[in-house]
Amino acid sequence: MRRLAAALTAALALGVGLTACGESDPVAGTSTAETREITHAMGTTKVPAGPKRVVVLDTDKIDTALSLGVTPVGAATAGQAKSWPTYFGEEKLAGIKEVGVLTEPDLEAITALKPDLILGSKFRQEKFYDELAAIAPTVFTEKVGITWKENFLLDGKALGKEQQARELLTAYETRAKEFGAKLGNAAERKISIVRFMPTEIRVYGPDSFSGIVIGDTGLGRPERQQLTGKEDRRMDRVSPERIGEVDGDVIFVTAYGEKAAAEQAKVTGGALWKDLSAVKAGKAHVVSDEIWMTGIGVGAANKIIDDLAKYLTA
Length: 314
What we know:
transport; Iron-siderophore ABC transporter substrate-binding protein; signal; Bact_iron-sidero_bind; ABC_transptr_periplasmic_BD
């Protein structure tokens, strides 16, 4: 009887031990993580319901992630602008690892970060899609700039933050509309957007990111920057000799990188620039390229309205 009792006690103890192990340390592969299907520019992809290790490969993606409270583990940088959007503050950028540039993502660096979601753009990285998708679930938006609101909502959905993304976008659009209404005569004020590149000067039209933000406020644009009749109404180029074409009631000026900043200094120091009516009136303002040009997200859009409020209501 004593031997039987001891055997039963041992069996009971073993059973309790196995049960405890089963609860705290399940056998690998028996747990099924929740996923969702996302339809995007490259097809349909199953992504984690709540991704924790996100890599972003375009500037709008880092704006989107940070706006939605997600700090990426890795991010690509934008060519000449070798930094991430500082308008979010250095603390939010701390710990993010660089994974190449927009057009040449570093696949080894991405793999080393063990991401559970990669966000990119067909426009920028289409040729890398299969390799990226082999690393982690990968979601691509189609275009850049002109579809920034749709991109924001799609990326928000992939991040498991769809409702928050909709709320942030609605709040931005409401703010833009209310800002324009407070100006009173918004449509009559012609806003010129000029960007200096390393090898050219650009004006930005109504289908560019910053042009869309200006349009959301109801502010007007110079006729030259409406790009009427052009297939691509995002931007156009002007030569230094025809810089008079960039005039407006107010001019906002950016430069993409150090070489472009040197070209900007050269042109804006010349007689043709100084002869522009907006310059003579003291209404030509240098603003951040990473906000007006490369941000391409709701965070940058709100910062553009901050600039408009600063310079148009002073």
